[in-house]
Amino acid sequence: MLARTCYVTLPNPMDDEQYKRLRAEVATRRTFAIISHPDAGKTTLTEKLLLYGGALHMAGAVRSRSGGRHTASDWMEIEKQRGISVSSSVLQFDYQGRHMNLLDTPGHNDFSEDTYRTLSAADTAIMLIDCVKGVEPQTIKLFQVCRMRGIPIVTFVNKMDRDGKDPFELLDEIERVLGIPCSPANWPLGSGSSFVGVYDRWRNTTLLFDGGLRSQRVGMHTIELDSPELAEAIGENALAKVRDEVELLGTAGTAFEREKFLSGQVTPVFFGSAMTNCGLDPFLDHFADLAPAPRARITTSGILAADDPAFSGFVFKIQANMDPQHRDRIAFLRICSGKFLRGMNVLHPRTGKTLSLARSVQFMAQERTVVDEAYSGDIVGLWDPGVLRIGDSLCEATPVEFEGIPRFSPEHFVRVRLDDPLKRKQLKKGLDQLSEEGAVQLFFDRRRLERDPILGAVGVLQFEVIEHRLRAEYGVRIG
Ligand code: GDP
């Protein structure tokens, strides 16, 4: 086992000015993912984050299943058809001087492998809980992955505009089922149709929601906790209950300590509604402060600081044919130290080769922009001619390798039968490329004469995606 306290120092390619700039840039990066059970509201929240971050001007209807508007993060054809989020993409936006990288992860259980890998690129997670359903199975799994990786978790209890479980009951459930102490950062004012705002415990302010269009950013204004306006909005009895609860929390609630949060020993809890926007403002403001800057990473030769001047990063996802117009393959790289410059030459330790990173992109739904420079914490998409694999590292000079990109054993298998035998070549190409993305694993049965490939996957829905993509992207039908 490596000595975990050993710090790696890579050769410094920067002068003092450049290094100062690097440190300032890295300090603004916030790279995070949202974890939740399907239907808890991840897509809705993602969209609202983009809206509040100014990256979208109007939030669309959440993945209307019968066509119409789709969310910005939903770009694959199959996602549109099925109304599920299949692939993880990366969305960027600025918020209060921070450069946010939101790693979008599929919520469906069958794609959990992809999600687990994506989490290896995140520094913080927002855990979304549906206030009606509480802690659900997929939340538990994803929470455990975050805990294993030491990722700090901020909890957002969503759908407070619906009549859900009592807030104390929810906190108790999170603590009991997930085993993490909760420290409520705010407290809901009213519930269901009378959910009108939150009491911000950290700032000791009461915020009343201004109401308005769901597709646009709506503010909240400050009032007194004993104001008649609030009594009128939620009723005298409900207000008296809120006052008692706030007082109780002051004496009996778990105190929030940043160090404990960063080491995953406490989760701050926010209440709100991603759909109506009530509670989003204070949540985002606090989240921008809570989310840590890029953390140091464990490599096979010791710990590497995020602001180490030499460039390094690892591939956590590969996606073929993101743009159907141009057959291409994009490797998503999480930068772990230094600065990325388009056109730079880097070392690829697995093959010992030098690669030129000439084609690099960032994504916003279907829009891609060329990235000329990026910093530790950022995610860049690299155009890949077929050299890179999930888990590969790239670095500036000295080879470094990062610990633990998880690989999972497949739990389901299917034998692929080709409809048109003349398409064997296309099938091979398609399966080779799609399996390199890590979504399915490819096997051959040596005991049989016929060499139909066997696909293995963690979830059965993966097979449907592969079937669809083989047809759409490689013109091959399989049975
Ligand atoms: P995902 O599967 O986690 O991405 O969830 P979606 O964002 O697609 O939301 C699932 C359903 O819950 C949709 O019908 C949303 O409109 C709804 N929803 C999301 N957030 C809220 C909320 O705050 N309140 C209510 N009442 N419904 C919500």
Search tags:
binds guanosine-5'-diphosphate; seven-stranded mixed beta sheet; alpha+beta; 479 residues; six-stranded antiparallel beta sheet
Chain-wise SSE layout:
Layout: H1 16-28, E1 29-35, H2 42-52, H3 77-82, E2 90-95, E3 98-103, H4 112-119, E4 124-130, H5 137-148, E5 153-158, H6 167-178, E6 182-184, E7 186-189, E8 197-200, E9 205-209, E10 220-223, H7 228-234, H8 236-252, H9 258-262, E11 267-271, H10 280-290, E12 297-299, E13 302-304, E14 312-320, E15 329-337, E16 339-341, E17 345-348, E18 353-356, E19 360-364, E20 367-370, E21 373-375, E22 379-383, E23 393-395, E24 412-415, H11 424-436, E25 441-443, E26 454-457, H12 461-474
Parallel strand pairs: 1-3, 1-4, 4-5, 5-11, 6-11
Antiparallel strand pairs: 2-3, 7-8, 8-9, 9-10, 12-13, 14-15, 14-23, 15-22, 16-21, 17-18, 19-20, 19-22, 24-26, 25-26
Helix pairs in contact: 7-8, 11-12
Question: Can you put this structure into words, describing what you see?
Answer:
- The protein has 479 residues and is of the alpha+beta class.
- Helix content is 27%, strand content 26%.
- Strands 2-3-1-4-5-11-6 form a 7-stranded mixed beta sheet, sandwiched between helices. The chain has a 6-stranded antiparallel beta sheet with strand order 20-19-22-15-14-23. Strands 7-8-9-10 form a 4-stranded antiparallel beta sheet, with helices on one face.
- It binds guanosine-5'-diphosphate (GDP).
